[in-house]
Amino acid sequence: MKKILSASILVLMATGAAFAQSNNANPRALEASMAHFRANAKAYGLTDADRELKQTRGFTDKLGKTHVRFDQYFNGVRVFEGEAISHVDSKGRVAVTNALRKDLRVNTTPSISDATAVSIAMARMNAVGGYDNPSATLVVLPAGERSASTRLTWHVRAFVENDATHPAQYDFFVDAHTGEVAFSFDSLETAKPGSGGGSTAAVAATATGRTMWSGDVTLDVNHPTSTSWTLQDTGRGIGSSSAPALGNYTLDMNKRSSGGSIVSRSTASFGDGSRNNTDVATAAADAHYGLQKTWDYFKLVHGRNGIDGNGSKTFSRVHYNRNYENAFWSDSCFCMTYGDGASTFYPLVSIDVAGHEMTHGVTSRTARLTYSGESGGLNEATSDIFGTAVEFYSGSATDVADWWIGERIWRSNWSTGSFVQARALRHMDDPAKDGRSPACWSSTLGSLDVHYSSGPANHMFYLLANGGTSKCNSNNVAGLGIDKAAKIWFRALTVYMTASTNYAAARTAALNAASDLYGASSAERAAVAAAFSGINVN
């Protein structure tokens, strides 16, 4: 469990929830943090705080607190999931979210090379059709949930993306002394369980998107010539030195896993509104709209400028590969990808799925919740939570907001010719409706697929936002409304959660967030406690 250690009592103010995002803490807050770690080194299991802690990012919020994230190092090698977050108020007082690992003892000189570790991992992976160039980084894998003993490992990561197989992003931790694979998982963040253009002139314009799932919508597009409109957003997303032109955009992959072209039309209209994929621009319109609405939701509701907090542009890929019945976020391309479905799904471009995938990107740039065990379930739940929040934010009269994930894309829901809501990817009001997701926490939760271990967190958030009766113990919870609930969870994610956060630590994070926003004696904090009690996390 993460612990909050404090050098003094924090002053908490109940004001707005928006954040001033940046990558670096102000120097005074950083120095106050390091002074705290130096003074309390023994309590944290540190020998030399200046050598063992390295700042990764920080920001100051509208409550006047600065939050600084640190990675832990042992003999110069990063400790996997070893982290701390300092919370510094305007008077320089420090509290700490502590996920540092104590009593590390391991030989940090590897006995096998990174190339050997890559060969071992790739032999285990045996990817059909090949894979991108893998990377290998030396890390300490501490004893605990991921390993029975502390090991020096090569963290090997390889992204599989080709036309012969479904995409995957494999993480292998190969013991750097014995060559044994100590821990592995598929970190490609998908919507459901399973295998997971050039420069043009920027002229801001709008077009009509005749979408599959959200009806007719307004799209922000580029209008480079009198007879050309392209799904390129000139107002959202900052380019980089390698790809400076325009902002967020949408690609047609044309049933391939590489390449793709920016979707364009000769009139200011994209799609035909049919769910049967008769016009390639229809799914593209859904994806572009989902990207636009999700971007606006995080910026206007939570004050976050884009996926990474710095406004960097991203893009969507539609019509990916053949018969691909999934969608995923990939850090390697910093993009969302949507399959067309096959026998089970229509194209997976509904707005809650779009919000779900982009939220994986937000999580990867904040708490970095490891996509395995309880932290993986919380990662998935966070995407479901904000995917649902985006659906409510969009206010669509066609895809009316609800507590089910991806219900519009199920073919069987349309078997009568009109929509009958019977199936979904997940059900936040009653997770067990899918036959696999528990609503209640138990000690065996971490052994489930992360899409199923998300169930208790989804149910907790439903109770917190909507109110109702727990499926676990019949407790009644008075809901706060989705806006307050989402602001609490966003602050918990971005301020208090770390890569290894489990359900107990998530409760602590959410209670701290509610205290910050509404006060330590507030009804909102009490509602958070009640919602977690409703899933048997006390």
Structure report:
By secondary structure, the protein is of the alpha+beta class. It folds into 4 domains: 3-99, no CATH class; 114-186, Nuclear Transport Factor 2, Chain: A, CATH 3.10.450; 204-365, Elastase, domain 1 (Roll); 404-533, Neutral Protease Domain 2 (Neutral Protease, domain 2, Orthogonal Bundle), CATH 1.10.390.10. It contains 12 helices and 25 strands. The protein has helices spanning 27-39, 41-44, 49-52, 114-125, 280-302, 351-364, 373-394, 450-453, 455-466, 482-496, 503-518, 523-533; strands at 3-6, 19-20, 53-61, 66-74, 77-88, 94-99, 135-141, 151-162, 165-175, 181-186, 189-190, 204-210, 216-225, 228-230, 249-252, 261-262, 264-265, 269-270, 315-318, 327-330, 335-338, 404-405, 426-427, 468-469, 476-477. Strands 1, 2, 3, 4, 5, 6, 7, 8, 9 and 10 form a 10-stranded mixed beta sheet that branches. A 6-stranded mixed beta sheet has the order 11-20-21-19-15-16, covered by helices on one side. Strand 12 and strand 13 (216-225) form a beta hairpin. It is globular.
CATH C-level name of the largest domain: Alpha Beta
* Mean pLDDT value: 90
Cα shape = globular
Q: Termini separation (Å)?
A: 12 Å
The class by helix and strand makeup works out as: alpha+beta
Please name the CATH topology of the largest domain: Elastase, domain 1
Computed CA radius of gyration, to the nearest angstrom: 23 Å
Characteristic key phrases:
538 residues; Nuclear Transport Factor 2, Chain: A; Elastase, domain 1; 10-stranded mixed sheet; 6-stranded mixed sheet; 12 helices; 25 strands; globular; disordered N terminus
